[in-house]
Amino acid sequence: MSVSLVTVAHVNSPSDLHPRLLVTDLDNTLWDWFAAWHGSFSAMLDRLIEISGVPAEVLEPQIRAVHQARGTAEYSFLLDEVPALVEASGTVPPSERYDEALHQLHSRRRAMTRLYPGVLETLTVLKEAGVAVAAYTESLAFWTEWRIRWTGLDELIDRLYSAPDHDLPNGLTREQVRTKADDEYGLQHTKHLPLPRGVMKPNAEILRSILDDCGVQPWQAVYVGDSLMKDIAMAQSVGVLDVHAKYGQAHEKAEYELLRRVTHWSDEDVEREKELSLRPEVRPTVVLERGFAELLPVFGLDRVSA
Ligand SMILES: [Mg+2]
Questions:
Q1: How much is the pTM?
Q2: Mean pLDDT per segment of 10 residues, for the chain of length 306 residues?
Q3: What's the CATH superfamily of 15-32+115-255+265-299?
Q4: Alpha carbon of 252 to ligand 1 centroid (Å)
């Protein structure tokens, strides 16, 4: 069924009573980060195990140690820093020896990174209605910028707040590791503002600073995200209307165990996340059951028809 854009003019709508700002989480709210991560990472891992001969039981903990040191589960130079792969690949760096595994990672990531249905249409309607959009993510700068470009949201997100990237290995410079033209990196329209390194959600102070930055009061903003603990609890503590992207929740899926085994989070973080996900105590004010387009009535706008 085709999706048409319908912006309903609310002639009588006193627009100053409607929210002026949407603060949105990105991963598993606008796109299925987890599915793309799992699909691409597991394909790479399977291929690595096959061609290097290093078993999963050895690889996974070593990968986790690198992810923890770099503060991300999306570390571009991973293979060359996993000791068992360095040993198995001999005189050639693992990233060259096992480049077909990296090819799996990149091609699956491209194929599986897609917006949830209705996201593009909904953000377009919000933009036309004059609502500003700020994105707040825990993912690091490089891959977040890539996902915004890849999914076509560079025009639709006004401000992006993310932590800067991990350091590059062995004193390499950004220019040395870039293989494409400069205009294939970064964002043209979205203003990217850095957050302090290592600050995790929920962080009320960061959300308050985003509101200040955008010049709005808490009651003039709406926050949407898929995590009850990280997104909803944070929005509630700041007095911003919280909206739960229930359709995006991924932590109950069996595949989520792989992320827990190789994640950059500490053991304590993993346990805390697991425990809280099993007995959510946070009750969201608004719930998006099926998709992002259900957000529009919160802004006094009609849903896009599908
Ligand atoms: Mg999320």
A1: 0.87
A2: 45 66 98 96 97 97 94 92 97 96 97 97 97 96 94 97 79 64 77 89 95 97 95 95 94 85 86 70 94 96 70
A3: HAD superfamily/HAD-like (3.40.50.1000)
A4: 14
